[in-house]
Amino acid sequence: MRLPLLLCVSVCLCAAPGSGAGADQSCTDLRQFYTGKGFTLAGVPQSEISGEHLRMCSQGPTCCTSTMEENLAGLTTRETEGLIREAGRSLQAAFNALHRSFDTYFTELHSQSERSLQDALSPLGPLYSQNTRLYGDLYADLRQYYRGSALNLDETLSEFWSRLLERTFKTSTPAEVSLSEDYLECVAKQQETLRPFGDIPRDMKSKVIRAFVTARSFVQGLIVSGEVVKKVSQVSLSLECTKALMKLIYCPHCRGMASVKPCSNYCSNVMKGCLANQADLDPEWQNLIDTMIQVVSSFSTEPSLDVVLSSIPARIYEAVHYQQQNTDTFTAKVYQMCGTPGTGEPGTGSPVVHEQRRKSSSLTALEYKPSPTAGLRLEMQVSDLSSKLREMRQYWTQLPMALCSKLAAGGANQDKCWNGITKARYLPEVMGDGLANQINNPEVELDITKPDMTIRQQIMQLKIMSNRLKNALDGNDVDFQDTSDDISGSGSGMCVGGQCSRSRPGLYAYSPDNNRVRGAATSQSHVCSLTFLFPLVILLLQR
């Protein structure tokens, strides 16, 4: 009995080392994966080695050396940054598509309105045929304003009505009466006080300004949103994020668990930690999107955008009709203010004007009737813009989940997924969104007191653009001048051929970094500030 027992023990002892050697798993799969990622096999082990050297993966048996761990960590960072940029490009493309859609719609409205000038104003006779440039210049100015020109729209429209008054007065005056440039200038100055066109210029001005201010601001909001996405998507991931990504994505390969996908909650914590600063965009991002949706809704509020643009020729015709109906009364007041033409004496003469001439050129009132198809197209435009903008509202908080959808295991495999150490359930809770909520993130170590400054600057950009859009909703003429020095300390400006302009650039080259509303209140505020500071300076000097 003793001999068989000894033989059995001997066999077992002899078999033990062999079975231990057989337990050392081959690294063939990892070697193929590693070379497939573009790395060489130099120094790559044939079978598992001890993992005490690992700094990111857990220190168990492994197929990865320190160099391999560093290479794969760099690779996973580049791949993840690539996914973030790809998602950003998709969102940018969506903003560009919205921009093209609205720009096409608006410019077509503008062009159709301009083309209808001849049909609407041809009954004016010489007042139209001899002054086509005056009307054409109005549309050109409106187009330039929409494109971002530094025009003051209020002044532009006032100038148009003053010039039109000159022409109508000149047309209604007999040819033998000489009207000097000074006299016509005096006539033009009566536009605001004598109101020869009734309330039409004032009413049309408020509606046109509101339409163009909101349209231009909306387009600018789309451009700014796309630029913010572009800049934020290019922000590099931190070193701590690199370590967490390596542990999430490629450490399973080092452990021989290449087929085991990360647990979804584990992936969420890693991505929420890596994109914590980006998630802080969310409040101002949603605010901007919501404000743009409000602007879009305002396009269909009466008077709708299409009605305002399409009715411009009819409103001009209506104004001239009103002036001709009241030409005697107006001419008498002009003679009182500017004198009889050729005499220079105010208050003299009589407007024997030319009752017959007025009657012969009298006009019938023209009623503008909006096109039903135009209203339907605007309704479709508003609906499409609003729905697509709503889809973008939660982009920054949904980005971690979007990335994990490509990496993590499905819901049914949460007990058989990679939890950072082995194949088992992930127990820690999922963190909230944003930097402040990552203080207890078990996967990514973050200093929540040190936010990313590039992203903070973009948050400010979103806030500024939201304020501009709110001003536009109130009908305020918004100045898009580049004042990026106020935000980042180094203005970008717009430079072409070495020439750098600090005035408002064109629409496609905006760098919107501050909010300024045109008007007298700006200059008054500077005066008030100086008035306040002057006594303070004197007091300090006396001390």
Automatic annotation (TrEMBL):
Subcellular localization: Cell membrane; Secreted, Extracellular space
Superkingdom: Eukaryota
GO molecular function, one term: fibroblast growth factor binding
Predominant subcellular localization, coarse grouping: membrane
UniProt topology in membrane: Lipid-anchor; GPI-anchor
Signal peptide, first to last residue: 1-22
One Pfam family linked to the record: Glypican
Keyword Transcription attached: no
Keywords: Cell membrane, Disulfide bond, Glycoprotein, GPI-anchor, Heparan sulfate, Lipoprotein, Membrane, Proteoglycan, Secreted, Signal
GO biological processes: cell migration; negative regulation of fibroblast growth factor receptor signaling pathway; regulation of protein localization to membrane
GO CC terms, sorted: cell surface; extracellular region; plasma membrane; side of membrane; synapse
Protein family: Belongs to the glypican family.
Job description of the protein: Cell surface proteoglycan.
The protein's name in its UniProt record: Glypican-1
Biological classification of the source: Eukaryota, Metazoa, Chordata, Craniata, Vertebrata
